[in-house]
Amino acid sequence: MNGQGTQAIAAETGFEVVAEPSVTSPSGFVAGGVHAGLKRKKRDLGMIFCEVPASAAAVYTMNAFQAAPLKVTRDSLAVEGKLQAVVVNSGNANACTGERGWEDALKTRREAAGLLGIPEHRVAVASTGVIGEFLPMDRMVEGLGRLVKEVGKEGHLPFCESILTTDTCTKAAEVVLRVEGRPVRIAGAAKGSGMIHPRMATMLAFLTTDAVIDPRHLQHLLREVTDETFNMITVDGDCSTNDMVLAMASGRAGHSPLHPDHPEWAAFRAAFAHVARELAKMIARDGEGATRLVEVKVTGAASREMARRVAKGVAGSNLVKSAVYGADANWGRVFCAIGYSDPEVRTDAVDLYIGDIPVVRGSRPVAFDEEQVQARMKEEKVNFLIDLRQGEHEAVAWGCDLTYEYVRINACYRT
Q1: Has this prediction a pTM greater than 0.85?
Q2: Residue 7 pLDDT more than 60?
Q3: What pLDDT shows up at residue 127?
Q4: Which residues take part in binding substrate (predicted)?
C-alpha cells in the first residue's frame, strides 16, 4: 500500500480520508518489518524511520509496572523531543524483567542507532507480547541488521504485520488536508486486541505526519486527542504494562509552524483526531473474539468527565457486552452501568436509545418492538445513545461484545 489510493472527501471537516492508508505516506517516512524469531513464523520486528529528525511526542500506560521499552523511549524523548526511528517487536513484552530488561531495551536502541548512523536518543523502542520473559537479544540484533536493509517506502504492510499479537487484522488510517495551501498528510498504524482498557492498554499506535510542529505543541495535542480517542476504548478492562501512542512530525510539508493560535490549527487538530479515532475504533472492533463493535454516546452530561465516565462504564460492562453478544435488549444492564459509573447522575431523567429506537425515557421504560431492537443489536456496530439530561457535555466510548472465544484465546495465551 502506498497511501495514494482513492480518497473520500469529507467536505464538512476540511480533510480527505485516504482509502489505502500508509504510515509511510507523509514525506520523509519509510518503514519495514521482518521475522526475527521471537514468534514462530510471522513477522515480529518492525521499524518506522524518518529521514530527518522529527518532532516527537508520546503517551504511555498508567500501569505501575511499565515495561522497560517505555522507560527507554521516555529517556530518548527527554533529550530534545525529536526522533528518527522507532523499533517495535511483538511476541515478547520485555515487561517485569528487571535490570536485564532495561539493559536489553537500551541495547536495542544502541544497536538500531549504530546501524542507522544516528544518535541513540533519536531512537524509540516498543514491545508487545508475553510478560515476564527475557528478549532473545541474539535474535533481536540479527533481526535488526536485516530490518534496516528492508526498510523502505513500501514497508507499510510489513511494519503493520510485525507489531501484531492476537490481532486478526492490521490497522491503519490516513487523511490529507491543506495548511497554507500545502498538502499535509497524517497517517497511523496500530495494534491491539486484548488487555485493552487504556489509560492505555496492550495497544501500540504510531502516527506520522509531515506537518511542521514543535515537539511541545505535538505533545499537548497528542495527550488531548488520546484522552478523546484511545482512552475511550475498552475490550476487557485490563490495563497493560506496555501501551504507547507515539507521534512523529517530519516538517517536510514546509508551511509555517503549527500552534494553537495558528489560523489552521483547528483543521489540523480535527484531522489528527480523526486518524486517532479511526485507529481506536479498529482496536475495539478487533477485540479478542469480538463479533461486534459497540459505540456508546453520552449526551446531556453535567461535565465532560461525567460524560466520559458513563460512556466508558457502559462500553466496559461485561453484562452489557454479553447482552450485545446475545442480541438481548436487556436495557437494565445499561442502566446498572450508568448508575455505578457516576453517582451524580440524576436517576429520574435518563433517556436511552438502542440504535434509533427509544427504550427508556425519563428513566422509565417505554414500549418497543423486541424484534426491531434485536435486529439493531445484531448489526456490525451496535449503538447506544444515552441522554443524561443534566447538562451540555458529551462523550463517545467504544468497545465490543464479550464472547466464548475471548475466554478460549486468553485461557491458552502462553501455550
Answers
A1: yes
A2: no
A3: 95
A4: 165, 191, 202, 288, 410, 415
Percentage of the chain beyond pLDDT 90 is: 80
Show binding-site residues.
165, 191, 202, 288, 410, 415
**From start to end of 256-315, where are the E strands?**
293-301
Is there a contact between 112 and 85 (Cβ–Cβ < 8 Å)?
Answer: yes
Q: List the beta bridge partners of residue 383.
A: 295
Which domains are present in the chain? Answer: 7-285 (3.60.70.12), 293-411 (3.10.20.340)
Marked catalytic residue, from 61, 166, 202, 209: 202
Residue 160 has pLDDT above 90, yes or no: yes
Asked whether 130 and 28 are in contact (CB, 8 A), the reply is no
Q: What is the Cα–Cα distance from 111 to 381, expressed in whole angstroms?
A: 44
**Residues that constitute the known binding site for substrate:** 165, 191, 202, 288, 410, 415
d(CA 77, CA 99): 21
User: How big is the chain by its Cα radius of gyration, in Å?
Assistant: 22
Mean pLDDT computed over 256-284: 96
Specify whether 202 is catalytic: yes
